[in-house]
Amino acid sequence: MAEPVLIWGAGAIGGSIGAWLKRAGHDVTFVDVVPDHVAAIANPVRGLRITGPIETFTVTAPARLPAEVSGQWPRIFLAVKAQDTEAATLALAPFLADDGYVLSLQNGLNENIIAGIVGRGRTIGAFINFAADWMGSGEIMFGNRGAAVLGELEGDISPRLQALHAHMCEFEPGASVTSDIWAYLWGKLGYGSMLFAQALGEAGKARVKRGGTHSQKTIVDFVYRNIDRDSILLTDDLPAYRWIGRKFGAHLAVNHSRGEYVRHDRYAAATAHVNTAESFNAILKRCWIGVRHWWSIKHSHRYLNQIVYHWNHRGTATTERLTAIFSASGQRLWFRECVQ
């Protein structure tokens, strides 16, 4: 029988991984700060329900509020928001066994914070890249599978890492181990800084905003602030769009996973596609990867604004572009603003 697992943070990431492990027969206990969520997971009538296009199932498991945790745990999977890492690690540290470890299932570079509290020898890092959303108490929408890479902070492929990998494969069959987890974590941080929400209107005009995550909340906030509610919303089949579309005049979606890219809807008298958005996205990626090669998180909004300007003025005559540029004279970007 595998050692018990304490999932500290039963949201999208922790809840998904914990549910799969529980279903596979592991001894899993959840910890979360939301009382209703904790009560739902432990309730035999409700449980923790996983929904979405991949699988739908429900598990029931012991669940606690942080103040209710007791005992010593050989494995604690930390899955809280990056900004809560220090507080959560301080809270769980008394319950970590001397020979146990904390697995960071988070976005960001949190492993050093964890290691500073429980020790580097008791910390394991992970690169997690699947899509999931916490929908409410007792429910998580699992949108798609993604990479799961595990690694010791010092790079050794230890027996405990191999054992952890075997168990993680019960959640993600394609999970792997690495001797350089930091390369994955830095890579994800760089990619995350480039994540953005984009909206393209009827005239092909673009609006872009850099976001820290591609969570449902980020998408909802951007869509509501930038698109008129009487519009026909055209999207792909990302699950986060399903209920957002109900707030608009109509919502048409194409299912790329089924090979559908264009579809005419006779009821809305419109054609569903995201080809224009895909074109803009291709230009953005070409600028980032092929032209700039790299840009900083601090100045990413400036690069994005430049790309948006070029896109929105692609049909403008050169003289008009020059007039617009010269009209902005007097607006300076001081060197110290770029480097401080």
Radius of gyration: 23 Å
Query: What name goes with the CATH superfamily of the largest domain?
Result: NAD(P)-binding Rossmann-like Domain
Question: H/E order of the elements?
Answer: EHEHEEEEHEHEEEEHEHEEHEHEEEHHHH
- Mean pLDDT across all amino acids: 85
Helix-strand category: alpha/beta
- Label the CATH architecture of the largest domain: 3-Layer(aba) Sandwich
Topology:
Elements: E1 5-8, H1 12-23, E2 28-31, H2 35-42, E3 48-51, E4 57-59, E5 63-64, E6 73-78, H3 85-92, E7 96-104, H4 111-118, E8 123-128, E9 131-136, E10 139-144, E11 148-152, H5 159-168, E12 176-177, H6 181-194, E13 196-200, E14 206-210, H7 216-226, E15 232-235, H8 241-244, E16 250-253, E17 263-265, E18 270-272, H9 275-292, H10 300-312, H11 318-326, H12 335-339
Parallel strand pairs: 1-2, 1-6, 2-5, 3-10, 6-7, 7-8, 11-12, 15-16
Antiparallel strand pairs: 3-4, 8-11, 9-10, 13-14, 17-18
Protein architecture, described:
- The structure is a single chain.
- The chain is α/β, with parallel strands linked by helices and 340 residues long.
- The chain has two domains: 5-191, NAD(P)-binding Rossmann-like Domain (Rossmann fold, 3-Layer(aba) Sandwich), CATH 3.40.50; 195-326, 2-Layer Sandwich (Nucleotidyltransferase, domain 5), CATH 3.30.420.
- It contains twelve helices and 18 strands.
- It has helices at 12-23, 35-42, 85-92, 111-118, 159-168, 181-194, 216-226, 241-244, 275-292, 300-312, 318-326, 335-339, and strands at residues 5-8, 28-31, 48-51, 57-59, 63-64, 73-78, 96-104, 123-128, 131-136, 139-144, 148-152, 176-177, 196-200, 206-210, 232-235, 250-253, 263-265, 270-272.
- The strands form five sheets. An eight-stranded mixed beta sheet has the order 5-2-1-6-7-8-11-12, with helices on both faces. The chain has a four-stranded mixed beta sheet with strand order 4-3-10-9. A two-stranded antiparallel sheet has the order 13-14.
- Helix 1 (12-23) links the parallel strand 1 and strand 2 (28-31).
- The longest helix has 18 residues, at 275-292.
- The model has no long low-confidence stretch (mean pLDDT 85).
